[in-house]
Design goal:
Length: 450
């Protein structure tokens, strides 16, 4: 368990997608743990003193790459079902890895480790798969270089990266891209610097790193503008119990499915309601979705149960300020827009072009196959809704992108023809049990094997 070799990394699996039953999606689902929080709990646990217990950890390929990398850096991590126990080494005691660290497909692992390893006394090499090796890393190396880091990338600013451990300085860093990964890399570097660091974000992004570091005892202060963060170096971090809430980005697939398929009513349990992550919930409500939050608790992360029922939707316009809180759910917003009344427009979302795939291109290509009127913009999409899609092709493709694959499985519920999905195994990146959980809500307990 927990190794990458037994997580079904096999390629190119094609599956037949399910169409919706008469009585829609029904039931209660515990969605797997949040991906962003699972990564951070391992990383912060590793640099704290003493034991960190992580409950409801997400055992997906991306998070297992973080786990494996930390083990190579000398951190002991044991596991029991979805509980991880990290024997923290303290902030200055990671050990050099004797081989390059394999980042797989995980942008979060890569970018957070670039920051966490920049101020060490040793060098580290990071490598990634073909998709990750196309993604931009200068956005991280450049701000870190201002703090004294030495990170060597390829001539195109991509992996593989060689991090030469250096002494880091506390600085004032203005970030040009709204990215929680970049911000988190700078925060991790700031913990190792010689003085305080202030980070100014372009727009507020998910704040799990800040909240978790505070829980572990660091001084990380966010100003009232929500985009200026001050980090004091060399905190005394102590191991903690981390209860990972359900991933709102995974929950969003079922929220969309229950909305689009008539006669549905589902409850998703213990989902993160962190204000920086609920863009999709808010957008669905604005489009006319029937969504209610049933219960809330908020220590240190807010979470609750979400009830979703079928609804008829109307079009929406999103601009740059809306994007960070819904960045991973934009393929699903495009799908909702495809069945809404009216024409929707998403702009200010050029970041989609540098995700696991160019999601503006892959969403447009795949929804076009389903007969949806969708046009690419340089930084977004225009989508005209219809209640009667006329598919032009029956073989859909995830393009190796987990979120595209899951969005297409939801889209298929609204189509009467039989559709297949190629590279369906991409779901293992963030949600290995996705198809089984979908079948459960569809009342079809058939096991789906990839
Ligand atoms: C993440 C931040 C987001 C998101 C990614 C996870 C994180 O990326 O798309 O899936 O855990 O910090 P950016 O911050 O680069 O937009």
């Amino acid at each position: 368990m927990g190794s990458l070799s037994n997580q079904g990394v096999s390629k190119m699996k094609e599956i037949v997608l399910t169409t919706a039953p008469q009585n829609g999606l029904q039931g209660v689902l515990n969605v797997p743990g949040d991906k962003s929080i699972s990564h951070r709990a391992l990383l912060i646990g590793a640099i704290s003193q003493g034991k960190t217990i992580i409950n409801h950890f997400l055992k997906s390929q991306d998070c297992l790459h973080t786990l494996q990398a930390l083990r190579q850096l000398g951190v002991e991590i044991s596991e029991k079902n979805d509980q991880m126990i990290v024997a923290g080494k303290g902030i200055d005691h990671l050990q050099p890895a004797n081989q390059p660290l394999d980042m797989g497909n995980s942008g979060t692992t890569t970018r957070l480790l670039l920051g966490l390893l920049a101020g060490r006394t040793f060098n580290t090499e990071l490598q990634g798969d073909a998709s990750l090796s196309r993604r931009p890393m200068k956005r991280v190396s450049e701000p870190l270089q201002k703090m004294g880091a030495a990170i060597k990338l390829t001539s195109t600013g991509t992996l593989p990266a060689i991090i030469q451990g250096k002494k880091l300085w506390g600085k004032r860093i203005s970030l040009e891209i709204a990215s929680a990964q970049v911000k988190s890399a700078v925060i991790f570097a700031a913990l190792q610097a010689d003085g305080p660091t202030t980070i100014i974000e372009k727009l507020p992004t998910r704040n799990h790193t800040e909240l978790m570091l505070q829980q572990f005892g660091a001084e990380v202060v966010t100003a009232v503008d929500q985009r200026t963060i001050t980090v004091l170096p060399h905190p005394h971090l102590r191991g903690q119990l981390v209860q990972v809430p359900g991933d709102p980005s995974s929950a969003a697939f079922f929220m969309a499915a229950a909305t689009l398929v008539p006669n549905s009513a589902i409850v998703l349990k213990n989902i993160s309601l962190n204000p920086t992550r609920i863009g999709f919930l808010r957008i669905l409500q604005k489009m006319g979705g029937k969504v209610s939050v049933l219960k809330q608790a908020n220590v240190p992360e807010t979470y609750g149960d979400i009830k979703v029922e079928s609804a008829k939707l109307h079009a929406i316009e999103l601009t740059a300020a809306d994007i960070p809180a819904v960045i991973d759910e934009l393929p699903l917003v495009a799908l909702l827009a495809a069945s809404a009344v009216g024409t929707s427009k998403i702009t200010g979302a050029a970041e989609l072009r540098v995700k696991e795939t160019d999601r503006i291109a892959t969403v447009t290509a795949e929804l076009h196959k389903l007969g949806i009127k969708i046009t690419e913009l340089p930084d977004g999409m225009i989508i005209t809704g219809s209640s009667n899609w006329q598919p032009r092709a029956y073989q859909l493709d995830s393009h190796g992108d987990h979120r595209i694959g899951m969005m297409l499985a939801v889209a298929a519920l609204c189509v009467h023809q039989s559709l297949t999905l190629q590279q369906a195994d991409a779901v293992n990146i963030s949600y290995p049990n996705f198809f089984t959980d979908l079948q459960q809500l569809l009342g079809q307990s058939k096991q789906v094997r990839l």
